[in-house]
Amino acid sequence: MTSLTIVRVIDAPPAAVFAAFVEPEKIALWWGPDDGPVTLAEVDARPGGRFHVRFRMLDGSEHGCFGNFEVFEPPHRLAMSWSWEGEDTPASYVQASFALADSGHTELTFVHAQLRDEATRDSHEHGWNGALDKLQRKARRLS
Questions:
Q1: Where are any strands of DSSP class E within the chain?
Q2: Which residue ranges of the chain lie beneath pLDDT 50?
Q3: Contact at 8 Å (CB) between 134 and 35?
């Protein structure tokens, strides 16, 4: 098993960036690694609640993910199991912490753990960096 860690400063306050992970209309702004649309965002935003998100890539392929919120501490910390639709592999684990940076923006520390191998880690690193780039570009629309 392997993991990846990404640290970013997002130009929005922590409560707004936290909301971007749990509110369907805000998830629709950024989820997915390219500018393809989110086609489904269902979220039961609470400890033990479930999420299910599907997005379409610009190449037309669709990808869906789902899981349960295992830690839910707005606006500071979030952790959830992570599975892909149509895959029989064990769930991985996503954690995000949202800290107030000196600039008044959010220092996001994002960890995707329990990935099965390096190729999976590399694929998720590419995907999450693309999605977080999009989140940064749309940060003004979060508040």
A1: 2-10, 38-43, 50-56, 62-73, 77-84, 92-100, 106-115
A2: none
A3: yes
